[in-house]
Design brief:
With 141 residues, the protein is an all-alpha fold. 62% of the residues lie in helices and 0% in strands. The chain contains eight helices and no strands. α6 crosses α7 and α6 packs parallel to α8. The N and C termini lie far apart (33 Å). One of its GO terms (molecular function) is DNA binding. It holds the Pfam family Xre_MbcA_ParS_C. This is Putative toxin-antitoxin system antitoxin component (TIGR02293 family).
């Protein structure tokens, strides 16, 4: 499933994926963000690196709680892809790389905290998503 497909999927479809558990092998690629790497991304999502690597090796699914946080991050990448496409940005724009850098920058809109520090909860991911949307609209310009 692509980032765009995750972002545009109906909520009920994402809930279904969460309940069944995302395959760790599929999540592995989603979590390997440039400038962050998989281990730092796992830590930001509050997922144990050793447990994740074991599930990849065993070709197991993530738990629903783990799947929810992983899908939430993948949805953020899809959100950036959609924002750039809707703004007429370049077709070869690397949303993963851009988001990876943006997540690490302290933002005044977040009390000078990094968006990365909010990824371990769904409320935090919603805050990050809203902050992205407001930045595009100019609310934080």
């Amino acid at each position: 499933m692509t980032y765009a497909a995750i972002y545009h999927a109906p909520v009920t479809a994402r809930i279904g994926r969460i309940r069944e558990g995302v395959a760790a092998t599929e999540a592995k690629d989603w979590l390997d963000l440039p400038d962050l790497g998989r281990n730092a991304t796992l830590k930001a999502l509050d997922l144990a690196v050793a447990t994740f690597n074991r599930k990849v090796k065993e070709r197991a699914n993530l738990s629903p709680a783990e799947s929810e946080r992983v899908l939430g991050l993948a949805r953020l990448v899809g959100q950036v892809e959609a924002m750039v496409r809707d703004a007429g940005g370049p077709a070869d724009f690397d949303a993963r790389a851009w988001l990876s850098r943006w997540l690490q920058e302290p933002l005044p809109a977040l009390g000078h905290a990094r968006p990365l520090d909010f990824l371990n909860t769904m409320e935090g991911q919603r805050l990050v998503s809203d902050t992205l949307a407001k930045a595009v609209s100019g609310a934080y310009a």
